[in-house]
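Q: Okay, next protein. This is Mitochondrial carrier protein from Euplotes crassus. I've checked the sequence twice, so it should be correct. Can you predict the 3D structure?
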Amino acid sequence: MSIATKGEKIDNTKRSRWKSLVAGICGNLSLFIFHPLENVKTRLQANDGLRNNHLPRYNGVIDTFLTMWRKEGLIAFYRGLYINILANALSGGIFFGLYADGKKRYNYDRETSSIWLTSFISLRAGLITMVCANPVWCIKTRVTLYWNEKDKKKSGFRLVRDTVSEMYTKEGIPSFFRGLSASVAMSFYGVLQMTAYEKLSKLAGIPEKPLERGKTPDIMTFFVGGTSRCIASATLYPIVLMRTRMQKQRFTIKEADELKAQRKINIDGTMNKEVFYTGVKETMKQTWKNEGIRGFYKGCLPNLLRIFPNSGMYFFLYEMTLRILD
């Protein structure tokens, strides 16, 4: 009898992992809607005003929208959509699969378990996720920031393929792991998000087990999911920005000037500096020195505008998928 019971527990744990994995992937369907804001956010994060930056100098959210539309067209807002979906599906699938595994493995109970257990389970899932998914996020950053006047319509699979090929040929395997130190620090993103999600769910009266929540997900799941993600994102946003800067393609002043000349981009107002972001410490130092505290929060507004509805829909679809699979 005891052997059967143990076997059932193992089987239930495996089912729970796969259900959470599938639910995490399905939750990313909302990315189609909010991808333009993701691209605007990434452009602003990379907007350091330096001479060796190959992109125009953007002056806020509206100017970024207008400049992208005027110089690149609609394709600029959806460039990198497929790799973004892959990166988020991979990250969401791994994270929530490991998170569900951790809750089962360490006998988590929302009513009795401490905040430290929630943090440990989230950190464990977040750390593994960030390390595994970093190469895909690095490719996504490069694709989003792509701009070549000679082939400005390039997008989709061809752009991803060429980006991967160029990274491997010119920079080698290490290029796929740029920003890894920042990604490791971002493991706390999951800690903040899931701790806030569990606590807010409890306050909102959302039952822990999907089957206890009725036939359709409560609308509170949308607000709890969006709010918890915004808390995590706003807190760790400077780390996200530094990761983008470490992952973007590096140009010399000469290379950047040539690219800007092709696109007739005015270089007036740019700082006549050549800076390469080689690590967290150097990125933090240069950002503070050249841009001050505001430099760490460039793109934060479109990020929050994207994250709240996107994450609300994510958790809504995540919980609905779990319920269907149950």
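A: Here is a summary of the prediction. The radius of gyration is 21 Å. The chain is about 70% helix and 0% strand.
Q: Noted. On to the next one.
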